[in-house]
Write a structure and sequence with these properties.
nucleotide-binding; binds guanosine-5'-diphosphate; metal-binding; 6-stranded mixed beta sheet; disordered C terminus; binds magnesium ion; Small_GTPase_ARF/SAR; single chain; alpha/beta; metal ion binding; Rossmann fold
Length: 287
């Protein structure tokens, strides 16, 4: 009975907790991701500068608080995308529909992204962007849906024609904003399962990262020890005076009265040696 009440309490508490969404913007460099984010923030869209790496913004979409990740799309940094999939409730993939020459690259990047274990099945908005340009006429949302074979994906998806920069370079396209509202509402409907997945995937990733860090720490420590021993060996080679002669007394067994004496005496001898420059080490040649 107590268990039932507790579950009900936790369920109600979860339901009343404010929901917040995380959405990632993907797409090749120059496709219009940063312009889309500026449009969401209600900022002038003609000022987008190239994104290196990652930036995040808090925006309001469909009366919900949304954190958007705007990732760099240049080929050399595209591999960072996968570091963010675990955390997100939805994905926006932006395509420069006016640049036919890069469509094969778009398709490869898209397929790699949506097939990733942490991204697969999450709600997806595809933007056929730059529709204000004449060259985009041959790649409308319908064409793009076919080209990327969206209907084969097992996720809720929507493909929209849009012009994030707006015709005048300032008014954001309504269809993009409507697409975003659809994405957040769709993620909202599946929120409980998406959030559970996010929490689990983030936990697994965190564990993996911690394990990697620990392994790296151990590797560095081992390397440090090896270098230290190497340096000691080289130092010993360079100052033969401190080496033991073949006539050195036999090695004392740990715990023997001689060994205990040696351990107790050692610091004093070192102090004396350092301060007076004349340490007398039994058995050392030329000491
Ligand atoms: N004509 C037109 N240009 C756009 C549109 N969206 C973005 N751009 C321009 O495309 C360039 C790259 O945009 P940006 O947002 O930086 O792309 P990102 O690299 O994907 O973030 C910029 O010069 C934008 O002004 C659009 O809808 N129409
Ligand atoms: Mg950018």
């Amino acid at each position: 009975m107590f268990g039932l009440m507790r579950n009900l309490y936790l369920h109600l508490q979860k339901k009343s907790a404010p929901r917040s969404f995380t959405i990632v913007f993907l797409g090749l460099d120059g496709s219009g991701k940063t312009t889309c984010v500026a449009a969401l923030k209600g900022e002038p869209t003609e000022e987008a500068t190239q994104t290196w790496g990652f930036s995040s913004e808090k925006v309001e979409v469909a009366q919900s608080s949304v954190e958007v990740y705007d990732l760099g799309g240049a080929k050399s940094i595209r591999r960072i995308w996968e570091n963010y999939y675990a955390e997100v409730h939805g994905i926006v993939f932006v395509v420069d529909a006016s640049d036919e020459s890069r469509l094969p690259e778009v398709k490869a990047a898209f397929e790699e992204a949506v097939s990733h274990a942490y991204a697969r099945g999450k709600p997806l908005l595809v933007c056929s962007n730059k529709q204000d340009l004449a060259k985009a006429a041959s790649m409308t949302a319908n064409d793009l849906r076919d080209y990327l074979d969206l209907d084969s994906l097992k996720c809720n998806h929507l493909c929209v024609d849009c012009s994030a920069a707006g015709k005048e370079g300032s008014t954001p396209d309504e269809s993009f904003l409507e697409g975003m509202a659809w994405l957040v509402r769709t993620a909202g409907v599946q929120y409980a399962s998406l959030q559970a997945r996010v929490e689990e995937d983030v936990r697994v990733e965190k564990e993996k990262q911690e394990k990697k860090m620990e392994e790296r720490r151990l590797r560095v420590e081992k390397l440090r020890q090896e270098r230290l021993e190497q340096a000691k060996a080289e130092e010993a080679k360079e100052s033969p005076a401190e080496q033991q002669s073949p006539t050195s007394p036999p090695r004392q067994e740990p715990g023997s009265p001689e060994a205990v004496y040696a351990v107790e005496e050692e610091p004093r001898r070192r102090d004396e040696g350092e301060s007076q420059g004349q340490a007398q080490i039994p058995g050392a040649i030329g000491a």
